[in-house]
């Protein structure tokens, strides 16, 4: 188990390094921050002074080495636009993002997993087709389209809820619903598929042949084994709690990490974008590590395989 997790940890560190490297070069090759922040009409002397002050006049490789050298010392850089520590700006936006993504995450679980189990236990019935049709519709509609539909219906049409902002708990309802419906649909579909695959296994038929009640077979044999592939999707959803609301925050004018990312990218605020991507990458790889650990816990074959070198 130790070797199994060590290999996953090394892979996670390499992933973060590659994400930061890719982001570093893409950001610098896609536009000049001096032109974006000071405008193209600024005097050439001012633009040159800006580039020199922020180290943009150095070669690309020198900037790259300086960036990682500072990063290893815990220096994430400063915002070119606000002259504030970049990571501080990112961290102060996280509570607002978690205020909508955490409730949405639990709502996904409460809707998606029971719906998938219900559909699997009633396979090919009218209710199964209804649940799966709703699931297909749920994850096929883009989140910004769904958000606009909810605004038109509940804010403009009925006037029940505000269309944007964050001054009261009512403002969070539409963003939470928008975030949760697509994820719940994906969970329902994956849970149904996992349950159907498990229920077709010989050990399920053997348990039924022994005279066990069907509820006991489902609870003690089908559900634990069907949980293993579903964990992957849940882990991805946990990893996307920080970055998963970019579009929704823009639609509902919610002042979280997503809106900060959009504005920072638009103005080429390099340190802020890089700090955001570092946080997102760290969150994703941490959730993947937790998923790998849960795999090893739920499935002893992975632990034994890791010891003998036969697994991942």
Automatic annotation (TrEMBL):
ABC transmembrane type-1 domain mapped to chain residues: 94-291
Family: Belongs to the binding-protein-dependent transport system permease family.
Residue spans crossing the bilayer: 94-121, 133-160, 172-190, 226-252, 272-298
Sorted UniProt keywords: Cell membrane, Membrane, Transmembrane, Transmembrane helix, Transport
Compartments it resides in: Cell membrane
Main location: membrane
A Pfam family that the UniProt record links to this protein: BPD_transp_1
Domain of life: Bacteria
Membrane topology: Multi-pass membrane protein
The protein, known as: Glutathione transport system permease protein GsiC
GO cellular component, one term: plasma membrane
GO terms for MF: dipeptide transmembrane transporter activity
Species per Swiss-Prot/TrEMBL record: Polaromonas vacuolata
């Amino acid at each position: 188990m130790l070797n199994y997790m060590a290999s996953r940890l090394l892979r996670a560190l390499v992933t973060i390094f590659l994400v930061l490297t890719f982001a570093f070069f893409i950001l610098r090759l896609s536009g000049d921050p001096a032109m974006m922040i000071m405008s193209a009409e600024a005097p050439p002397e001012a633009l040159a002074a800006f580039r020199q002050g922020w180290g943009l006049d150095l070669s690309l490789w020198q900037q790259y080495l300086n960036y990682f050298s500072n990063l290893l010392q815990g220096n994430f850089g400063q915002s070119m636009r606000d002259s504030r520590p970049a990571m501080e700006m990112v961290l102060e936006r996280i509570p607002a993002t978690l205020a909508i993504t955490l409730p949405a995450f639990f709502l996904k679980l409460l809707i998606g997993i029971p719906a998938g189990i219900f559909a699997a236990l009633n396979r090919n019935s009218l209710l199964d087709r209804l649940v799966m049709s709703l699931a297909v519709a749920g994850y096929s509609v883009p989140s910004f389209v769904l958000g606009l539909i909810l605004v038109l219906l509940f804010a403009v049409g009925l006037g029940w809820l505000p269309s944007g902002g964050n001054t009261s708990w009512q403002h969070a309802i539409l963003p939470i619903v928008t975030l949760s419906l697509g994820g719940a649909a994906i969970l329902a579909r994956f849970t149904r598929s996992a349950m159907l695959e498990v229920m077709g296994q010989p050990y399920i038929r053997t348990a039924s042949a022994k005279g066990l009640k069907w509820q006991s077979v489902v609870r003690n044999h089908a559900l634990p084994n069907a949980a293993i592939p579903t964990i992957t999707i849940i882990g991805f959803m946990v990893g996307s709690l920080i970055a998963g609301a970019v579009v929704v925050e823009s639609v509902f004018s919610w002042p979280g990490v997503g809106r900060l990312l959009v504005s920072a990218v638009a103005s080429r605020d390099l340190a802020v974008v890089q700090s955001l991507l570092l946080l997102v990458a760290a969150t994703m790889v941490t959730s993947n590590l937790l998923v790998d650990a849960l795999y090893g816990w739920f499935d002893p074959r992975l632990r034994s395989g890791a010891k003998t070198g036969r697994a991942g």
